[in-house]
Amino acid sequence: MELITHLIDFILHVDRYLEAFVTNYGPWVYALLFVIIFVETGVVVMPFLPGDSLIFVVGALCGVGLMSFPVACAVLLLAAILGDQSNYMIGRHFGPKVFQWENSRFFNKRAFNEAHAFYEKYGAFTIIAARFMPFIRTFAPFVAGVAEMDRKKFSAFNIVGALIWVFGIATAGFFLGSVPWVKQNLDKIIWAMILVPGLIVVFGALKARYARKAEPT
Q: For the whole model, what pTM was predicted?
C-alpha cells in the first residue's frame, strides 16, 4: 500500500521529483528518463508509469535551463521507439504460442482474425493515436504484435508516432511550463492528461459495445 501511495505521489508531483533528481544527480536524469519511458511503453504490465506528464515536465525543466532540450528529446524519443518495438516483439513472440491452443479458453479464432484485419487496415492510425492515451499506449503495440501487424508498417508508424508524441508534448512543456498559471495548476493538468484520454477511450469502447449489441444476429 505504501508503494502505491509513493507511486501516485510521484505521478502527481513528477515535477518536484525530477527537479530534485537533477539537482542531486545531474546528467543521470537522462538515464532515469530512458528507463521510465522504455518501461512504460515496452512492458505491457507497467502502463501506470507517467508518460505524457513526464515529457511535459521535462520540457518545462528544459525551458528554465535545468536540462538540455535536444538531449532530453533524443533520449525520450529513443526510449519511446525501442519501448514500442519491444512490446510489439513480445506480442509477436507470445501471441502464436497462446493462440495455438485452439481449444483453450484463451483462444478465440474469430477475435484474432478481427484484430489482425483491424491492425492491417487501421494500425497506422492506432499506433500514432495511442501514443497520447495512457494505458492504451502500453497495450496497442503488444496487441499489434499479437495480431501480426506487418513489421515494417508497425516500425514506420512507431517512429512517426514517437516523434509527434515526444516533440509535441516536450515543446508544449518548454514554452508553457514556466507560465505561472500552469505551474500553480500542474497537478490538475496532470490529472487531465490522465483522465481525459481515458474517458474518451471508455466512451468509445461503450459506444462500440452497444453498436455490436444493436446489430441484427
A: 0.79
Average pLDDT, the chain: 79
What CA–CA distance (Å, rounded) separates 188 from 12?
9
Helix (H, G, I), strand (E, B) or coil at 36: helix
How many domains does one find in the chain?
1
Q: How far apart are alpha carbons 148 and 68 in whole angstroms?
A: 38
For residues 159 and 163, give the distance between their C-alpha atoms in angstroms, rounded to a whole number: 6
Please count the other Cβ atoms lying within 10 Å of the Cβ belonging to residue 153: 15
Quote the domain boundaries for residue 184: 2-214
d(CA 2, CA 184): 27
End-to-end CA distance of the chain: 46
Asked if residue 138 lies in contact with residue 41, where contact means CB atoms within 8 angstroms, the answer is yes
